[in-house]
């Protein structure tokens, strides 16, 4: 390996959200990595900083080509330049998409457990959440198409799809996406496909961009992508919203105008170009490393703490782990993990009511940190008197 993912970096003094306030506790929650970004990106940013002028900067051809080439090479989806809107973050874009394509009081579908800011974006904008809970079958999650169809009414205008799915780690198959897409076409429901995790898939799984499944699907969808999860760049804020449909673009243009959305910041531009043009080797090694971390975690837990269950992941660096056998309510589980085990995960119910009893564990960290967290968990759980297989 050219890059050293084992390096332990102290992120406490750089304002890292993940590490804020944690001294004794190992934080494994918010979705960024404890790895350094690729040297190629660091160099590109340094050299641009050395140049010394930071005035208004347009998005040049190289920027657009970097996105187009990366997405075509990785996912076989051919994007045209004029489909691309750059926004600082995907969450900000979700707010603008909801404002543009739905009205106050409309319903928007999300499939829980799912990234919690979908719900926030819908409710903050006065729209209504229509939950279509995922179905769990022998530790794997599926979309519930029957439930979805039976709950659609004329108020439903949009679905926010998480593809691949945070936190259950599904890389949705073509068949699943086609079935969903057909239901949405039949009912005039716009598909917003958040594909921020699309590059992070494990061996044997391939991401399918929703919009690549045919013209009708492309015209009825908006895709959100970003190099920030893939290359650990969340702090430089750069995302891209892909809108193939001209009518939808006109409406979104207007929202951008009303919000005086200008170009994104220089280091977002430089970081994205360096990532997509020069980051491939780092990316491949990172994928290998995190999949090994996942395998290690799963095997360790299976061997030492068989009462807790790790959902089989197909992608992302966020494990979805079932702690229900401990028979603790969410308050007790939180206290147990933070005060006795001394780790910080995300509580499952953050992602929807059906996440109760689960924890989301971010394993994108040096192996030693993961080993220490699992060691602590092992001691804590094996001393814990409440667990029972009978749940
Ligand atoms: C599905 C999903 N969308 C969006 C985001 C956040 O993206 P951004 O930082 O660009 O708002 C996350 C972060 O974890 C995520 O998991």
From TrEMBL:
<keyword id="KW-0456">Lyase</keyword>
<dbReference type="InterPro" id="IPR015424">
    <property type="entry name" value="PyrdxlP-dep_Trfase"/>
</dbReference>
<dbReference type="GO" id="GO:0008483">
    <property type="term" value="F:transaminase activity"/>
</dbReference>
<keyword id="KW-0808">Transferase</keyword>
<dbReference type="InterPro" id="IPR051798">
    <property type="entry name" value="Class-II_PLP-Dep_Aminotrans"/>
</dbReference>
<keyword id="KW-0663">Pyridoxal phosphate</keyword>
<feature type="domain" description="Aminotransferase class I/classII large">
    <location>
        <begin position="30"/>
        <end position="375"/>
    </location>
</feature>
<keyword id="KW-0032">Aminotransferase</keyword>
<dbReference type="InterPro" id="IPR015422">
    <property type="entry name" value="PyrdxlP-dep_Trfase_small"/>
</dbReference>
<protein>
    <recommendedName>
        <fullName>cysteine-S-conjugate beta-lyase</fullName>
        <ecNumber>4.4.1.13</ecNumber>
    </recommendedName>
</protein>
<dbReference type="Pfam" id="PF00155">
    <property type="entry name" value="Aminotran_1_2"/>
</dbReference>
<dbReference type="InterPro" id="IPR015421">
    <property type="entry name" value="PyrdxlP-dep_Trfase_major"/>
</dbReference>
<dbReference type="InterPro" id="IPR004839">
    <property type="entry name" value="Aminotransferase_I/II_large"/>
</dbReference>
<comment type="similarity">
    <text>Belongs to the class-II pyridoxal-phosphate-dependent aminotransferase family. MalY/PatB cystathionine beta-lyase subfamily.</text>
</comment>
<dbReference type="InterPro" id="IPR027619">
    <property type="entry name" value="C-S_lyase_PatB-like"/>
</dbReference>
């Amino acid at each position: 390996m050219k890059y050293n993912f084992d390096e332990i970096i102290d992120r406490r003094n750089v304002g890292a959200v993940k590490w804020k306030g944690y001294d004794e506790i190992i934080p494994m929650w918010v979705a960024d990595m404890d790895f350094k970004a690729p040297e190629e990106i660091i160099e590109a940013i340094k050299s641009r900083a050395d140049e010394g002028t930071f005035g208004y900067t347009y998005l040049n051809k190289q920027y657009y080509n970097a996105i187009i080439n990366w997405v075509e090479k990785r996912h076989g989806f051919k994007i045209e330049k004029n489909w691309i809107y750059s926004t600082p973050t995907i969450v900000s874009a979700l707010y603008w998409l909801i404002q543009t394509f739905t009205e106050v009081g409309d319903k928007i579908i999300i499939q829980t457990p799912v990234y919690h800011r979908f719900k926030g974006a819908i409710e903050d904008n006065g729209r209504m959440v229509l939950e279509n809970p995922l179905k769990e079958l022998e530790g794997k999650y599926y979309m519930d198409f029957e439930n979805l169809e039976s709950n659609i009414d004329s108020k439903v205008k949009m679905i926010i799809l998480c593809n691949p799915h945070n936190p259950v780690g599904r890389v949705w198959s073509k068949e699943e996406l086609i079935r969903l897409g057909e239901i949405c076409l039949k009912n005039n429901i716009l598909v917003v496909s958040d594909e921020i995790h699309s590059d992070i898939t494990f061996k044997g799984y391939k991401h399918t961009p929703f919009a690549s499944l045919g013209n009708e699907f492309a015209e009825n969808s908006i895709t959100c992508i970003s190099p920030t999860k893939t290359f650990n760049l969340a702090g430089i804020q750069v995302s891209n919203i892909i809108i193939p449909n001209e009518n939808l673009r006109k409406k979104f243009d207007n929202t951008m105008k009303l919000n005086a959305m200008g170009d994104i910041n220089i280091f977002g531009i430089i970081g994205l170009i360096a990532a997509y043009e020069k980051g491939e080797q780092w990316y491949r090694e990172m994928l290998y490393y995190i999949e090994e971390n996942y395998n290690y975690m799963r095997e360790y837990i299976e061997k030492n703490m068989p009462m807790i269950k790790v959902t089989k992941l197909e992608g992302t660096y966020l494990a979805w782990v079932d702690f229900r056998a401990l028979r603790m309510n969410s308050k007790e589980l939180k206290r147990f993990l933070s005060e006795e085990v001394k780790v910080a995960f995300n509580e499952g119910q953050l992602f929807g009511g059906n996440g109760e009893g689960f924890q989301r564990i971010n394993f994108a960290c040096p192996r030693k940190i993961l080993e220490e967290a699992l060691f602590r968990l092992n001691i804590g759980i094996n001393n814990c008197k409440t667990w029972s297989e009978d749940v």
